[in-house]
Amino acid sequence: MNAPSAEPAEPTGSNPVPLTEPAEGVPPVVSDPETLRQVAAALAGADGPIAVDTERASGYRYSQRAYLVQLRREGAGTVLIDPVALNGRLDPLVDALSGAEWVLHAASQDLPCLAELGLRPGTLFDTELAGRLAGFERVALGTLVERLLGYRLEKGHGAADWSRRPLPADWLNYAALDVELLIPLRHVLERELRNQGKLDWALEEFEAVRLAPAPRPRQEPWRRTSGIHRVRTPRQLAAVRALWEARNAIARERDIAPGRVLPDSALMEAATVNPRTHGELLALPVFRGRAQRRLASTWLAALRLASQLPKDQLPDPAPAHEGPPPVNRWSDKDPDAAARLAKARAALGEIAQRHNLPVENLLLPDLVRRTCWQPPADTSPTGVAEVLRAGGARAWQVALTSEVLSTALRATA
């Protein structure tokens, strides 16, 4: 099979061509420094953008590190790199990839683990984001490749445990296919965006993704435990917190996904039942297993700690909410704010429809809510534009939305 080109393999709407393996075959995994230097030199000597992808082990490991890095560049072919075998030392790639445009699909998912390896793009093209801005309703990689290039990718291992060694051959085949068509897809999407007059918008969005700061750690992350909405008393919430923190410490130390140490359902049951002895704990369904029996003392110690906390150290059942209240409460709390938001949403929806955009890509919903809940003193288009820019809106978003938001902010119930 010849390498796929930027042109669709079949006319739109016809049967896609199955692509079950890379055109040039699956390359051997790079796992030693000398081979890394060789492939880095080949990548540096080639031309054009570089397709980039990673495979992690979410759901299996505590960390979000990359367990495989896939690269492809015209003239150098596909490269599969094992950063674990290389102890995370990918220094030759830093220079090889410097200044080049990277092409990723859903880049925000991969950039943090690449940055951990010292790899950062000079410029970026995100094919998922490009697809959204171009107005495609479904923007999964396989869907876009099928629609725009006429190929159907072999899929099926995205949720696998990529920390496993050695990696199975069919997994490596899957990983290589993920970068096989990223460059052709990038070219087709660029052409589509240019034809729609949105390429400059997309470039602003890509740059915002590239420069986005690392997300701030969540405050009280234990409150996201599945099923916690059924807990009402401060003492039971303290038990959830203590068990969550004990589980998190074990997961971090062992580099295991927390849910594999103790599932949320079992954590919630223990917090609710509050067993006092080993026998009572081991009588609960999940805790009967060998692994949980070994950790029984840890869970009981966490429960004991929660039961002995003074009242002033118990968590608040209704913690302070950062930002506006839930929208369904606006009509009661502030009817004028509800009217502003309704008018803003309607106006933004019309703009998004006119430009064939998802409304959430036109302007972040959270920024819209915050602005409508607490409008600036200056609600003129100029004043609103300043608020939007301060909230991270890009120039094209501000140009499209500041005037209609200005009008909405002067609405009352």
N-end to C-end Cα span: 64 Å
Share of helical residues? 40-55%
Uncertain parts = 5-11
- CATH top level assignment of the largest domain: Alpha Beta
The arrangement of helices and strands along the chain is: EEHEEEHEHEHHEHHHHHHHHHHHHHHH
Structure classification? alpha/beta
CATH superfamily of the largest domain: Ribonuclease H-like superfamily/Ribonuclease H
Taken from the alpha-carbon principal axes, the silhouette is: flat
Mean of pLDDT? 93
CATH architecture of the largest domain: 2-Layer Sandwich
Describe this structure in words.
The chain is of the alpha/beta class. The chain has three domains: 17-211, Nucleotidyltransferase, domain 5 (2-Layer Sandwich); 221-313, HRDC domain (DNA polymerase, domain 1, Orthogonal Bundle), CATH 1.10.150.80; 327-408, HRDC domain (DNA polymerase, domain 1, Orthogonal Bundle), CATH 1.10.150. 49% of the residues lie in helices and 8% in strands. Residues 1-30, 311-333 are annotated as: Disordered. Residues 233-313 form the HRDC domain. One of its GO terms (biological process) is nucleobase-containing compound metabolic process. One of its GO terms (molecular function) is nucleotide binding.
